[in-house]
């Protein structure tokens, strides 16, 4: 019986996008892309201008090589953005740290509305 319940919970977690472990996904511009759960996640934007939501307890690493991405951090974990194309926005609404690690194209910003910290 426990294995059936465990299987159901795991299937539900996959369906709603929650994760207890590490996950990695590509995101396309215009696509809803998020990171939720307690594990770390990596999201890579395949074009210019992706929107990524980081809502979990673990770290959320976002790579935006073509720039123009908006990353919203609502979670308790750290959010790290690498923005090779520049002009990325990091909205720090949660309690974790928000870090723009690289903004080679320039024009990146980090706006803090939560209790977390913005670092550029």
Shape, please? globular
**Care to count the β-strands?**
12
- What do the pLDDT scores average to? 85
**Total domain units:** 1
Structural class: mainly beta
Number of separate helices: 1
Overall radius of gyration: 15 Å
Distance between the termini: 50 Å
Strand content: 35-45%
Widest β-sheet, arrangement of strands? 1-3-5-7-9-11
What is the percent of helical residues?
10-25%
**Which stretches of 5+ consecutive residues score pLDDT under 50?**
1-19
Major pleated sheet: 6 strands, parallel
List the secondary-structure elements in sequence, H or E: HEEEEEEEEEEEE
Give the gist of this structure.
This protein is mainly β and 120 residues long. The chain has one helix spanning 2-16, and strands at residues 18-19, 23-27, 33-37, 41-45, 51-54, 60-63, 70-73, 79-82, 89-92, 98-102, 109-112, 118-119.
Task: Describe the protein in words.
There is one protein chain. This protein is mainly β. It has one domain (2-119). It is built from one helix and twelve strands. It has one helix spanning 2-16, and strands at residues 18-19, 23-27, 33-37, 41-45, 51-54, 60-63, 70-73, 79-82, 89-92, 98-102, 109-112, 118-119. The strands form two sheets. A six-stranded parallel sheet has the order 1-3-5-7-9-11. A six-stranded parallel sheet has the order 2-4-6-8-10-12, with no helix packed on it. The longest helix is centred in the N-terminal third of the chain and has 15 residues, at 2-16.
